[in-house]
Amino acid sequence: MNPFRDSSSKRGYYDYYDKYDYGYKFPEMRVGDDNISQANLEKEQKLKEKENELIARERGYNINKAANYSPTGNNSPKVIITQGSRYFTEEDEYGNRRQVDMGVEVTTSNGRLFVAVTPLANKLGLWVNYNASTKTTTLSKPNTTVAISPNSSYITINGKSENMGIRPMLKNGKIMIPAHYLAKAFGLDSSKISYEGNKIVINNY
């Protein structure tokens, strides 16, 4: 939130200040007072000075905020998944980072890296449904529906099945799939996902 654009408070919002704000009380102006013209000029000058001060402070705030910007390839937000960690890191367009608990560590099995699907799907804005009777997890978004089950090595994308070569894992109640299939599971272009050492990076989600 930009504190200079918060209309919930007059202080810090230069469109709403009055003569008692900012520690300055303007001269009283009375009809017939010989000093009324001078008082008006002084009031206008002080208001203008305060307006310019707040505009400058707002500009400085925006500059400082922009200074924290950390370009990431195509200047986009991203999600970083690290092998062996139960947390993924989300990074916004300014480089600010926050860790989110997936509830289960990124795991290697039979030479394949497995990642929990549901926490990432929720982060990426997909609708998630779990059918307990068939143990099937369905991920949905406009134009994409994906079904995954630990009972089958097939992932179904918009009604078409594709063999992943290995069954999804079920660990700590979380369904996990090979990292190579994350893009397909989330309906993303494969160019959105990169592999950097022991990290998986989802860009511009």
How would the blueprint of this fold be written?
Elements: H1 36-67, E1 78-82, E2 87-91, E3 97-101, E4 107-109, E5 112-116, H2 118-123, E6 127-131, E7 136-141, E8 144-148, E9 154-157, E10 160-163, E11 169-171, E12 174-178, H3 182-185, E13 193-196, E14 199-203
Antiparallel strand pairs: 1-2, 1-14, 2-3, 4-5, 5-12, 6-7, 7-8, 8-9, 9-10, 11-12, 13-14
Tag the structure with descriptive keywords.
five-stranded antiparallel sheet; 31% strand; alpha+beta; 205 residues; disordered N terminus; 3 helices; Copper Amine Oxidase, Chain A, domain 1
Explain this structure.
The structure is a single chain. The chain is of the alpha+beta class and 205 residues long. It folds into 2 domains: 65 residues, no CATH class; 126 residues, Copper Amine Oxidase, Chain A, domain 1 (2-Layer Sandwich), CATH 3.30.457. It has 3 helices and 14 strands. The N terminus is likely disordered. It comes from Peptoanaerobacter stomatis.
Q: Can you describe this structure in just a few lines?
A:
With 205 residues, the chain is α+β, with helices and mostly antiparallel strands. The chain contains 3 helices and 14 strands.
- Strand fraction equals 25-35%
CATH class of the largest domain: Alpha Beta
CATH superfamily of the largest domain: Copper amine oxidase-like, N-terminal domain
Biggest sheet statistics: 5 strands, antiparallel
**How many runs of DSSP E, i.e. beta strands?**
14
User: What proportion of the residues is helical, as a percent range?
Assistant: 10-25%
Integer average pLDDT: 75
- Class computed from helices, strands and strand pairing: alpha+beta
The gross shape turns out to be: elongated
Number of domains: 2
CATH architecture of the largest domain: 2-Layer Sandwich
**Helix-strand pattern, N to C?**
HEEEEEHEEEEEEEHEE
Helical stretch tally: 3
Strand order of the largest sheet: 3-2-1-14-13
